[in-house]
Amino acid sequence: MSRIDLPQGTLDLLILRTISLGPLHGWAISERIQQISSEVLRVQQGSLYPALHRLERRGWIKSRWGTSDNNRRAKYYELTKTGRQQLEVEKDAWEKLTAAVAQVLGTA
Amino acid sequence: MFSDLRFRLRSLLLRNTAESELNEELRFHFEQLVEQHVQSGLPRQEALRRARLAFGGLDQIKEECRDARGVHVLETLLQDIRFSMRVLLRSPSFTIVAVLTLALGIGANTAIFSVVNGVLLRPLAYRDSTSLVNVWAKFEKQGIPLLPASEPEYWDLLDHNQSFSQIAAYSLDGNANLTRADAPPVHVTEASATAGLFPLLGITPALGRAFAPDEDQPGHSHFVLLSYAFWQSQFGGDRDIVNQSIHLDGEVYSVLGVLPKQFSLGGKQDLWVPLGLDRAKPQDRGSHYLPVVARLKPDVTAVQVSSALTQFAEYLRRTYPANYGSVGDFGVFMVPMKEQLTGGLRPALLVLLGAVAFVLLIACANVANLQLAHASSREKELAVRTAMGAGRSRLIRQLLTESLVLALAGGLLGLLLAYWGVAALRALAPPNTPRLDEIHLDWVVLAFTFGVSLLTGLFFGLAPAWHVARTDLRETLNESSRGASASGATRRLRAALVVSELAVAVLLLVGAGLLIRSFNRLLAVSPGFQTQHLLTVQLSLPEKVYPGGPPVQNFYSQLMARVNVIPGIQAAGAVSKMPLTDSYASGSVYFEDTSVPDLPRDPDLQNLPYMEIDQRSATPGYFQTLQIPLVRGRLLNEADDANAPFVAVVDEDFAHRFWPHGDAIGHRVALDGIPKVKPAMPRWRTIVGVVGHVKHYALDIQGREQIYCPHAQPLFDIFSPRDMTLVVRTSLDPVSVASAIRQQVLAIDKDLPLYNIATMDQLLSASVAQPRLNLALLAAFAGLALILAAVGVYGVMAYGVTQRTHEFGIRMAIGALPASVVKQVFLEGGRLTALGLAFGLVAALLLTRLMASLLFDVKPSDPETLGVAAVLLALVALIACYIPARRATRVDPMIALRHE
Fold first, then answer.
1. How many other CB atoms sit within 10 Å of the CB of residue B624?
2. With CB atoms 3.0 to 4.6 Å apart as the test, which of B242, B538, B563, B586 could cross-link to B208 if both were Cys?
3. Cβ neighbours for B615, distance < 8 A, ≥ 6 positions apart
4. What ipTM does the predicted assembly reach?
């Protein structure tokens, strides 16, 4: 189980993507990212929460208080309309970037 | 953008909610983590430990979240402000002195600025007021710089108009008697206007309507608009007054409406009537009584208008050569209406505004000094904060915030002071001050105060911030309190601040001194008569009841006979215009023979030479009553009536100007022509006496040459002086004498009111009200400056002594005499004072020139004033040094040495 530090800006993309399927609280977001990435990507609380607050300020995600699976009050985040658009933009950019990087690596 | 702002605001305003939500969110995460560990089989204790480990610095995460939410900058500011409040409240004496000092400075500035704003800055309350101008005539060579139009000139201007979209004329100095069945007669001031005036100004009556054009016609003009104040005082604000009738001089006028509260074209008129000018039968071309107001066409330039008016003047001169004198004499020009109204106040207001700005500078310097002292005593605290990780910029920001909080508190209190100050100014200002009603605190003034407060805060906040920036605070921690005395640079800064305070105080003292001297010179000017124990009342005979000539003369001779026997009246007389009452009465005097060459000549009156001269009609008792000295010949007497040879009395200036080498007595002059004689013949009067010159306009205006005619001898049959001022000399109570006179007047005519009852001393005092107010204000500001500067000197010296207690203690312990310690303190104080005086006197020499127009008979560089100001300041500064010096001598060496 090797872990990779997330490149700058990637965290936002991961968060947006993770909650694009439905509202999640912070804990679930970090668990989901870890799970889906087969434990490769691990998000530290110290980065996750500032990122969530920053995204909320930008209006890409919004939050509301809800009840968690174990009946606790938890803050759920979901995508806004602009957030959804932003997700597409960032996904495109990311795909272009990785394709380009792969191409460079492949031919070198 | 908007959502961002809303989010930040929410975060800021609901700070507590946001904070507790953040806590809850993070705790949830933490507990989930613990739960996960527990479920994977760890004991709870171990699970907690690991979770804490994984979570790291909780406070750091929170801080980063706050940053991410964008509240941090504002949050810090709020923190700084809260902290500033705590710091300021912890040293209440410092805070009180600083806030009071600033409040005085800012309050004075706000008060004077609200006057400047109301009088000079705010546009006049008329529609599109910047395009409104007054149009005047002038006869430069005859010494008449500004003259209203005559009726024919008004019509000519309408016919030749190129520059104006609207033109109207008015006249302000009418009088009438309002009579009612159920009340005593009331004298009213009556203005008249062409129907176009109110639409031109954009004034709509508060009630009813203005004059229609067909109500401004000869023989059809008995309509009246009431002023708001007159409507309130005489009709109790009765809204049904519109379309009712009132009786003015016995004639019926129908009330059309009530004018808005603030409306005034200068002075206080009770009511307005249509001028009803008759174009077919205009008054004389030389009878200038109509101020003209006009609205510029939107696309004309000032140069175009001036040249059009010059052409117009040239046209008049060519067409009526008899009326407009030689080339280069007559002119027509315009003045923007606002400048016309308030231009006279501008120099005084600007000087006062400059003075209060200087007072504020002194206040700033004082507070900066206080703060420097305060900052020095806080060095330890600041050093500790630096040690704990606060950056220098953070500390400077904190200190600036403190200054701004102080400044804003000062501004707030200053606003309160200004509120009272403005009320006081409005009460003290002469009632004829233009736009007095428009002086109040409005949002422009509030913005000004806010801006000034911020600037002030930055200005005096720079000093302590600079101090912190220069001081190595880490070293401070190592030093003992003794060593923590101000660094050399800071001491120099404080000295420089005190020197500039003293310099500015000298400047203001000199300014106030000049005004005081100038005012004393003004009061020392003799008006040409004895002003004490004189009582004046005005009378205005209605034309319908007294149609000129004998009825008027009979009334006044009867009245004089009755008044002369009232007990306690030593002398009584009447004159057509009382001196020093802001009244203007002049006309042409024709000469039979004079040695003065180059006088204009009148081709319509035998081509006689003539000159514009102050003219007055007087009853025989006038000169004795005022005690105007007789220089040669005789005064007017009872025998000079309509059947006797016509005579006149002139003043010394007249005699000297027109017969410089001979005697004026016996020469003949004419003021009018013989009635009903064509071609016109002069009605000669023989000069029988020469009297002293009287200041007719104001104490500081010498005025024109003067001529007096007996009231009993007709003058311009249409202009027989119906309006006279009765003046009596009495040492009895003016009020009871006035009521005795009223009884005599009512005994002759029960419908005739007395008005403007005043002692001559009151009139004299009113005539110098403006310079007196200037003087009082500038003196108050200079006094304030002096006190603040003294406090500044005291503060610096006292601080210096405290800082050097240890040193003084040692000196005294090894045998220094108290006197030498005192000498040392005084030497330092004296050095600062001398520097301040030197700079201040130089500044005074440079700047007082700007107030030359406010001075009378005093040069701006008056050495005596400079000397007195310097001595006064030096004395006050030395007293301010004395107290700390005394304290230095009382230092107990033992205590001083333990002073660590």
1. 15
2. B242
3. B585, B586, B587, B589, B671, B706, B707, B708, B709, B715
4. 0.86
* Closest among B309, B328, B285 to B602, alpha carbons compared: B285
pLDDT at B418: 95
H or E stretch including B689?
strand B682-691
Q: Which residues of A touch B (CB under 8 A)?
A: 25-27, 30, 44-46, 49-51, 53-54, 56-59, 65, 68, 70, 72-75
Please give the Cα distance from B487 to B493 (Å, whole number). 10
Q: How far is the CA of B350 from the CAs of A51, B115, B143, B355, in angstroms?
A: 58, 10, 28, 8
The token pair at B856 is 């009378």
With 60 as the cut, is the pLDDT of residue B396 above it?
A: yes
Calculate how close chain B gets to A60, using CA atoms only, in Å. Answer: 10
Residues near B696 by beta carbon (within 8 Å), at least 6 away in sequence: B577, B579, B580, B583, B614, B703, B704, B706
Which residues is B630 bridged to in the sheet?
B691
pLDDT for B11 equals: 62
Structure token digits, residue B241: 């007054």
- Angstrom CA distances, A41 to A32, A37, A78, A101, B109, stand at 10, 6, 21, 20, 65
Pairing between strand B608-618 and B601-602?
antiparallel
Is there a contact between B783 and B775 (Cβ–Cβ < 8 Å)?
A: no
- Rounded CA-CA distance B871/B744 in Å is 58
Asked if residue A97 has pLDDT above 50, the reply is: yes
Q: Judge contact between B168 and B292, C-beta under 8 A.
A: yes
**Cα–Cα distance, B394 to B391 (Å, whole number):** 5
CA atoms of B28 and B34, how far apart (whole Å): 10
Tens of pLDDT, residue by residue over B880-898, are 888 888 877 777 777 766 6
Alpha helices in B325-442 (DSSP H): 337-342, 346-377, 379-387, 392-428
State whether residue B54 sits within 8 Å of chain A by CB: yes
DSSP three-state, residue B420? helix
Query: How far does Cα B199 stand from its chain's mean position?
Result: 30
- Residue contact B28–A26, C-beta within 8 A: yes
Give the mean pLDDT of chain B: 87
- Residue B861 is given by DSSP the state T
Q: CA-to-CA distance for B139 and B329, rounded, in angstroms?
A: 5
Contacts of A25 in chain B (CB under 8 A): 25, 28
Interface contact B68-A72, CB threshold 8 A: no
* Chain segment B703-722, per-residue pLDDT in tens: 889 999 999 888 876 556 88
Question: B418, B114 in Cβ contact below 8 A?
Answer: yes
B615-640: pLDDT as tens digits = 999 999 999 999 999 999 999 999 99
3-state class (DSSP) for residue A61:
strand
| CB B170 within 8 Å of CB B265 | yes
- Sign of the dihedral defined by the CA atoms of residues B232, B237, B238, B241, in that order: positive
Residue B732 sits at the chain A interface (C-beta within 8 Å): no
Which helix (H) or strand (E) segment holds residue B331: the answer is: strand B330-336
Q: Which of A11, A31, A45 to mutate to test the interface with B (most CBs of B within 10 A)?
A: A45
Structure tokens, B452: 């000034």
Q: Is B8 on the interface with A (CB under 8 A)?
A: yes
Distance in angstroms (rounded) separating the CA atoms of residues B70 and B7: 9
Length of chain B: 900
Q: What percent of chain A has pLDDT over 90?
A: 7
Instruction: Please give the pLDDT value at position B492.
Output: 84
Contact between B132 and B294 (Cβ < 8 Å): yes
CB B579 within 8 A of CB B527: yes
